[in-house]
Amino acid sequence: MNLLIVGGTGKTGRELIKQGLAAGHVITAIARNPKNFKFDNPHFRVVKGDVLIPESIEHCFIGQDAVLSALGHKRFFIKTTILSRGTKNILHAMNKNGVKRFICVTSLGINDSRFKLGLYYTVFTIPVILFFYFLDKSKQEKLIMKSNLDWTIIRPGQLTNGKKRTNYKHDTKAGNYILTKMISRASVAHFILKNLNSNLYLRKAVGVIN
User: Which among 12, 52, 106, 118 could bridge 180 via Cys, Cβ 3.0 to 4.6 Å?
Assistant: First the structure.
């Protein structure tokens, strides 16, 4: 498949690229700084663009079979709309270019999975450290859910840099009110690619944990 990856410079995005290429997909990645990529593969290309500047990315969607988003940002303490604004531009570009399949990574603890990231995140981390980040993620999810695309929202537990596992758990009600469930970025990437040709979670938000 021809895959367009947004957020490929992050750790989850890099796993997506690595595993996607290994599976035989043709991958295009959007990056503000293409020099951040070191992948040497004839089926991979990186295009300079910024999801907050629609005209810089719209041409990247031509001929794509699916769009995968691992978009994120590091400014957790600052009020921001990067995720929601960027996703709005992605959705517009997909509709404009006739691309229907969209898989987006967000997090447990958002919207109808509220409190499912465990007590520590519920009472401290989200309200004190990640408040604006999760607020923007919530807006991001709602934009996707209102779209007419064939979307799947993937909500991982706390992300780790562990090895890829294929025996992870996934369900629309995944998570735990008390304990913080974890999962490796490599496992999340595997689950994303696994869902490309599956209708199991079509137009649904699914949690994935170890």
Answer: 118
pTM of the model: 0.96
Helix, coil or strand: residue 80: coil
- DSSP per residue over 147-184, as a string? SSSEEEEEEESEEE-----S--EEETT--BSSS--EEE
Question: In sequence order, which residues have a C-beta less than 8 Å from that of residue 89 and are 6 or more positions away?
Answer: 51, 52, 54, 57
Q: What share of the chain is helix, strand, coil (3-state, %, to 5)?
A: 35, 25, 40
pLDDT tens string 154-210: 999 999 999 999 999 999 999 999 999 999 999 999 999 999 999 999 999 999 999
How many Å separate Cα 110 from the centre of its chain? 14
Give me the amino acid identity at 100.
K
Q: Which residue carries 């604006």 as its tokens?
A: 132
Pairing of strands 169-171, 204-209: antiparallel
